[in-house]
Design brief:
Quinone Oxidoreductase, Chain A, domain 1; globular; six-stranded parallel sheet; binds zinc ion; Rossmann fold; 2 domains; 11 helices
C-alpha cells in the first residue's frame, strides 16, 4: 500500500509503497477513506512530540473495514468505522473508571507505537498514535475502530476522531456549559470553532471568540459567537465589560500556547471554569499567578479528546451533524490527495487551513 512516511524530522514526507505486516488476530484492516491533517502533526513533524521515525502520522481517520483478525468480534468487512485518536479497551483502570480517554492501551505504551509495515529498504514502520491515517490502509486494534450507521460523507466522519470530539466534548462533557452562561473561546482554529458551535448548542447567552486572525474571528461569528475580540486589544477589558465586570463563567482554551493558557485564566470569573484543550509541544511549561487558583477558587480543567466515550458520544455528534446543528462545511477548508501531504503540512503550519482533509 502507499503511505506518507515521516522518515526523519523536518524533512519532507515521502509517499512510498510499503509492505503491510500480517494481520494480528486482535486487529482489523481498514481501508482509509479520509484523514484530517491535524495541527498536532506539524508539531510531530518538527520532532517536538516524541515520535520515532520512520512512522506514519495521522491520529484520526475514517474508513471501511476490509479484514478482521481471527479473535475480533463485533466488527465485519464492509462496515464504516471511525478510527479516533484514542482506543477504548473497556477493561483497563481508566476504562473501568469511566475515563476511556486515558485508556492504557494507548497511554501506557510509553510512546512506542506498533509496527504495521516495512519499507522497501527493510525498515519497520510504526503507526503513530496506533492509527497511521496518512496511508491507504490502517492496521487498527479492535478497540480503536467504532462502527457508525450514517450516510454522512467520510471527510466529515474523519473529524469525529479529534477535532469535533475535542472541541464539542470540552464544552459539553468537561465544562458542562448550561443555558444562559457566558463562554469565552480562546483560539478559533478548528478546535475553537467546534467549541463555539457547541457553546451555541448548549444555549450559552454570551459566546465571546478571542482570536488574532480576522478571517477566523469572522467565521466564529458565523458559527455562533456573539462577540468577537482581537487579543491584540485588551481582551480582559472586553470580556469584563460584557460580564458585569466579573469575567466569563467558562473559558475554553483551544490554542495551546502558554500565552493563550494564561490569557484564558485571566478571562474567567472567580470560581469560574477554565478548560485547557490545546497543546504546543511536549517540553512546554506554563506558569500561572496563584491568587486566581487559590483564593478565587477557579476550576482548572484539561481534556484529552473532549473526555468522550465514543460509543455514547459518536451517535449524538453524528445526529447533530446530520441535522445541521453542527456544521463541518466551513471547517474543511481543503481536500487533498495523499501526494499533497507536504502542501497540507505547509498550509496547516501557515494557518491557511482550518482542517485540510486527505480523501482516498
Ligand atoms: Zn488532532
Ligand atoms: Zn482501556
Amino acid at each position: 500500500m502507499r503511505a506518507a512516511l515521516l522518515r526523519d524530522f523536518d524533512v519532507p514526507f515521502t509517499v512510498e509503497d510499503v509492505q503491510m505486516l500480517d494481520l494480528d488476530p486482535f486487529r482489523v484492516l481498514v481501508r482509509t477513506k479520509a484523514s484530517p491533517f491535524c495541527s498536532t502533526d506539524v508539531t510531530s513533524y518538527h520532532g517536538k512530540l516524541g515520535k520515532i521515525p520512520p512512522t506514519i502520522l495521522g491520529h484520526a481517520s475514517a474508513g471501511e473495514v476490509i479484514e478482521v483478525g481471527s479473535q475480533v468480534q463485533g466488527l465485519r468487512p464492509g462496515q464504516r468505522v471511525i478510527v479516533p485518536g484514542t482506543p477504548e479497551c473497556g477493561h483497563c483502570y481508566y476504562c473501568s473508571a469511566g475515563r476511556p480517554d486515558q485508556c492504557s492501551e494507548l497511554f501506557d505504551l510509553g510512546g512506542i507505537f506498533p509496527d504495521v509495515a516495512t519499507t522497501s529498504d527493510g525498515l519497520p514502520v510504526s503507526a503513530a498514535g496506533c492509527v497511521g491515517g496518512y496511508a491507504e490502509l490502517m492496521s487498527i486494534s479492535k478497540n480503536q475502530a467504532f462502527p457508525v450507521d450514517t450516510d454522512l460523507p467520510y471527510d466529515v466522519l474523519s473529524l469525529l476522531g479529534c477535532g469535533i470530539t475535542t472541541g464539542v466534548g470540552a464544552v459539553l462533557n468537561v465544562a458542562k456549559v448550561q443555558p444562559g452562561e457566558s463562554v469565552v473561546v480562546v483560539g478559533c482554529g478548528h478546535l475553537g470553532l467546534w467549541a463555539v458551535q457547541a457553546a451555541r448548542l448548549a444555549g450559552a447567552a454570551l459566546i465571546i471568540a478571542v482570536e488574532p486572525n480576522a478571517a477566523r474571528r469572522a467565521l466564529a461569528g458565523e458559527l455562533g459567537a456573539t462577540h468577537l475580540v482581537d487579543p491584540a486589544t485588551d481582551a480582559a477589558d472586553a470580556v469584563k465589560s460584557l460580564t458585569a465586570g466579573r469575567g466569563a463563567d467558562t473559558v475554553i482554551e483551544a490554542a495551546g500556547t502558554p500565552e493563550a493558557q494564561r490569557l484564558a485564566l485571566s478571562l474567567s470569573r472567580r470560581a469560574g471554569t477554565v478548560v485547557f484543550s490545546g497543546l504546543a509541544e511536549a517540553a512546554t511549561e506554563v506558569t500561572f499567578p496563584q491568587i486566581p487558583l487559590a483564593v478565587q477558587s477557579r476550576q482548572m480543567l484539561s481534556t484529552q479528546n473532549g473526555n468522550v466515550r465514543m460509543r455514547r458520544d459518536l451517535p449524538r455528534y453524528i445526529n447533530l451533524l446530520e441535522r445541521g446543528l453542527l456544521d463541518a462545511a466551513p471547517i474543511i477548508t481543503t481536500r487533498y490527495g495523499l501526494d499533497d501531504i507536504n502542501l497540507a503540512l505547509q498550509r496547516s503550519e501557515s494557518l491557511e487551513d482550518l482542517s485540510g482533509v486527505f480523501v482516498f
